[in-house]
TrEMBL record:
One BP term from GO: vesicle-mediated transport
Gene3D superfamilies per UniProt: 1.25.40.60, 3.40.50.1910, 3.40.50.2060, Syntaxin Binding Protein 1, Chain A, domain 2
Name this polypeptide is given: Syntaxin binding protein 1
Superkingdom of this protein's organism: Eukaryota
Pfam families for the chain: Sec1
Homology family: Belongs to the STXBP/unc-18/SEC1 family.
Region (Disordered): 512-586, 629-670
Amino acid composition bias (Polar residues), ranges on this chain: 573-586
Comp. bias intervals (Basic residues): 640-652
Length: 705
């Protein structure tokens, strides 16, 4: 019997592989061996001297050292490196090896996407070192495949390297969009959401309904889901033996509609902020609502028995109703109160635009040990410490005591100092010391780019959208970075290009000229790729094999876009979509025609930041479409109508004024698209973090140091 091996080329995995062919008798007659990334010289020597190569019909490097999470989101499995990244150098002697391995995995993503990007990084020594390793790996891949990075406008692509210190607040905050809130409140293993009587629901791109709703605010979901559910029941009415079940489903949807009406009933407008974001008041009819929801779910399940061909769609509605009901209940119980304080602290003002009179009192009033988990209490205290620019050790101890938290949590605050690159705890006598913040400046004296997101600086107040929800005013700092990077206005002192290799995009004419300097576009611009059409990029040469035919590379769960190049190889250039996949949305897409902004965060990304990734890509697409539709030629910006919570803020300091004829709730995305190209954002990190996982990483950092 022959075997297929899909391995990460580490010493332990390779030893187990070789053992299968050195045992007597041998476990298999032959093997097809596929390594996710390139092997080190040490691993190649280990294989060579073993004498097992003669049993290998294929020995191939797949260049897939990453895990696709969603269509534009990926993760790299090196969790230890994630929280050791900001440790003092003398405490992690093998950091160079860790960085080199991480660099190879990041490089495989670029190879998969056929990108040879310019590299930018947040100014920090560890980021510079990682950037240099990545450049070495990419240069090697470019030597093996000269076609790497070839294509229209591919020379503008950027790889932006960040560490988690670029925004320490977003991983701690409650986010009220469906996916972020669900993963924050529930323990979800992988992507499997468990509910009801042993039922499971996969939170993946394959489910069209989940894909459409996951980045919507919970208040918006509670409005749209009942409407969708009623429409679904009505559309299938003629398939049912009795119309009674369709009526029950349609009427049962009113349980969520009731929540929506509760939300709308408290809507007030002040200082340009609509104050009704998921502010769900205690529902006097909550028991009746739950009974109605249960009746609706029973009717939906009965409907599935009569129409098995619609089982997947019905199951999606079933699960989404359960998820939404769970999230709304959590908002009513305690989340609203916590979010109010969180948003006031990070924004530096109330939802009415008033200055926060006493941040400490606001914090103390909501710190209720009996109704809050230990992690939530610490999250709130840490948010307070960061937003106030640090804290005296004595005051921190009082807060921890009031919240019934152990004094060992001081060490976790020290770990956050290490991540941020600035000291958060100060003491009069210097009694509290930690190697994690030894030698670091205080937050007040740290470089300006470290302090940018602090409310005391007032940098982001004008970024509040007049249509934002009161409990969702904060937008991840990543949104600012992406827009500035695309418009080539990102501070090159704080986020430099890799020295000696890269240069500013504006120096190579990467962005369109201002509109008033443009004449009618030339023929080459008009023939550029449309945002409505995506053609495949040149295929790299196939990997040399030791013998045998090409075997499957199974065993890796893939997401459509990031894995498309592997699909093209296995299907001889053609991607196939099964009937099941076509029901729940596209599962494959040709390579993006245009530049990409690939962002990698060492320390992990958050679910709210994945929403930002899609939002910026969508705005660039709209900019490209608007530019291509103008007969007078391309423009440097486009006015994009606000699309609710997925849309961007309207008051953006881009230097571009809105024309009088345009509504005030529109936003100009500078350089979002030009003639023949548009940007696509790909976001990844050393994992996708929930707040609980982020706090666990702080604990890991403390234990290691």
């Amino acid at each position: 019997m022959e075997a297929i091996y899909l391995l990460e080329p580490c010493k332990d995995s390779v030893s187990r592989l070789l053992r299968d062919f050195t045992n007597n008798p041998k476990n298999y007659t032959a093997a097809y061996v596929y390594f996710t990334i390139a092997c080190s010289d040490e691993i190649l020597k280990q294989i060579s001297v073993s004498g097992c190569v003669r049993y290998f019909k294929a020995l191939t490097i797949l260049n897939i050292g990453f895990l696709p999470i969603e269509s534009h989101i990926f993760s790299i499995n090196c969790h230890e490196t994630a929280w050791l990244y900001t440790c003092p150098v003398d405490r992690v002697p093998d950091m160079n090896n860790r960085l080199e391995s991480l660099a190879e995995q990041i490089a495989t993503l670029c190879v998969t996407l056929n990108e040879y990007p310019k590299i930018r990084y947040r100014k920090r020594s560890s980021n510079l070192e990682l950037a240099q390793f990545i450049q070495l790996k990419l240069t090697k891949h470019k030597g093996d495949n000269p076609q790497l990075g070839q294509g229209l406008h591919k020379d503008r692509s950027i790889l932006l390297l960040l560490d988690r210190g670029f925004d320490p607040l977003t991983p701690l905050l409650h986010d009220l969009t469906l996916q972020s809130l669900t993963r924050d409140l529930k323990e979800i293993n992988g992507n499997s959401y468990k509910y009801g009587k042993g039922q499971e629901y996969e939170l993946t791109d394959k489910d069209k309904l989940w894909k459409e709703l996951r980045n919507e605010h919970i208040a918006d979901v509670s409005k749209s889901l009942p409407t969708r559910l009623r429409a679904f029941a009505e559309s299938k009415r003629h398939f049912l033996a009795s119309t009674k079940k369709a009526d029950e489903i349609a009427s049962g949807a009113s349980s969520l509609r009731g929540s929506q009406e509760s939300i709308n009933s408290v809507g007030t407008t002040s200082s340009g902020v609509v104050n009704y974001g998921a502010d769900v008041p205690p529902d006097a009819n909550s028991n009746a609502s739950r009974l109605s929801s249960a009746a609706h779910l029973r009717a939906l399940q009965a409907m599935v028995h009569e129409m098995p061909q619609y089982q997947k769609e019905a199951a999606s509605y079933n699960a989404l109703v359960s998820i939404t009901d769970y999230c709304l209940s959590a908002c009513r119980e305690n989340i609203n109160n916590i979010c109010t304080v969180e948003q006031d602290l990070v924004m530096g003002q109330t939802a009415h635009g008033d200055t926060l009179p006493d941040p400490m009192m606001s914090l103390v009033n909501v710190l209720k040990p009996d109704s809050m988990t230990e992690v939530d209490r610490f999250r709130l205290i840490l948010i307070y410490v960061i937003t106030q620019g640090g804290i005296l050790e004595a005051n921190l101890e009082k807060l921890l005591d009031y919240a019934r938290l152990s004094l060992t949590y001081k060490s976790l605050v020290a770990a956050m100092s290490s991540i941020m690159g600035a000291r958060l705890i100060s003491s009069v006598d210097g009694s509290f010391d930690s190697p994690l913040f030894r030698g670091l400046p205080s937050l007040a004296s740290a470089p300006s780019f470290i302090q940018y997101y602090l409310p005391i600086k007032g940098k982001r107040l004008r970024d509040v959208d007049e249509n934002s929800y009161a409990l969702s005013r904060w937008v991840p700092y990543l949104d600012d970075l992406l827009e500035k990077c695309i418009s080539d206005s990102l501070d090159s002192q704080c986020f430099p290009y890799l020295p000696g290799v890269q240069g500013s995009l504006s120096k190579v004419g990467s962005f369109p000229k201002p509109t008033d300097q443009l004449a009618v576009p030339n023929s080459s611009d008009l023939r550029g790729p449309s945002a409505r059409f995506r053609a495949p990029s040149p295929q790299p040469p196939s990997t040399t094999r030791t013998g045998g035919s090409e075997g499957p590379a199974g065993g890796i769960p893939t997401s459509p876009d990031l894995s498309n190049r592997q699909k093209q190889r296995s299907d001889s250039g053609r991607s196939t979509v099964s009937a099941d996949d076509s029901i729940f949305g596209e599962t494959s897409m040709s390579d993006h025609c245009g530049p990409r902004l690939i962002v990698f965060v060492v320390g992990g990304i958050t679910w709210p930041e994945t929403r930002v990734c899609y939002s910026v890509t969508q705005r660039c697409m709209e900019a490209r479409l608007a530019a291509s539709d103008k007969s007078s030629g391309p423009t440097t910006g486009v006015h994009v109508k606000n699309r609710g919570h997925l849309g961007r803020h309207s008051h953006k300091s881009s230097g571009l004024s809105l024309p009088p004829s345009q509504p005030s709730n529109q936003h100009v995305l500078k350089n979002g698209g030009g003639a023949g190209w548009n940007w696509e954002v790909i976001l990844g990190g050393t994992g996708v973090l929930t707040p609980k996982q982020f706090v666990a990483n702080l604990q890991n950092l403390v234990e290691y140091s």
